[in-house]
Each structure stands twice: as structure tokens, then as C-alpha cells.
Amino acid sequence: MIGYVTVGTNDLTRAARFYDALADEMGVGRMMQSDTYIAWGEPGGGAGVAATKPHDGQAASVGNGTMVALEAKDEAQVDRLHATALANGGTDEGAPGPRGGGFYAAYFRDPDGNKLNAFCMPGQAGG
């Protein structure tokens, strides 16, 4: 079971604006924070997401092939999360739409270049 996923950031204030907006759309808030990181989610809930300045003091970089997937409640929320990401400094990596096999998703990057998607599985439990 995944407890949380961490993405690196070189600008925690900028990352906070981006992830605060996504978390708000998903009905959660910040659950932990310090001068070097912020974590969003719900204690005892599903997996959370954290943005952090790298512990080694080096610049954060994007992992090729690495992506964080955010489970949305329905297609409309996938659409809203994609729009929210773009409105808060994110960049488009794939507009919302069906991807085959009952999978509906949208892809975007946060302001640091970390790739995320919002998805649901219409007609299945949780989607």
C-alpha cells in the first residue's frame, strides 16, 4: 500500500499554490508541513502527495517516466483538475478524455515539471 508520493520542488511557495488548488478540488488540505516540504491528504485516508526541497540541497529534477496519478471521483472532476492545474502554473500533457479500457484521464505537469494525471474509471467502484 502506498502511504504517500513525494515530488521535488525548487520553489516551495509556487508548489504550494499549485497543490493547494488541486487538493482543494479533491476535498483535502495540508496534513503536514515544514520549511522544506508540504504534504497534502487526509490522515488515515488514501495516499497523500508531498512537495519537498531535496534533502541533499541539490536542485530538484524530474524523473523520466515518473508520474503521480490522482484518482478523481468522476469525469467532471478529471476535467476540473486539469483546468485547475493549467490555471495554477501547470502545463498540458494531454487533454481530458477516454484512453481506452474504461479509463478516463488528463495529463499535466506541475510548475517544476513533475508529471501528474487525474483519472477515473467510469462505471467501476471509486470512479
From TrEMBL:
Residues 1-121 form the VOC domain. InterPro entries: Glyas_Bleomycin-R_OHBP_Dase, Glyas_Fos-R_dOase_dom, VOC_core. It comes from the Bacteria. Signal peptide: none annotated. Coiled coil: none annotated. This is VOC family protein.
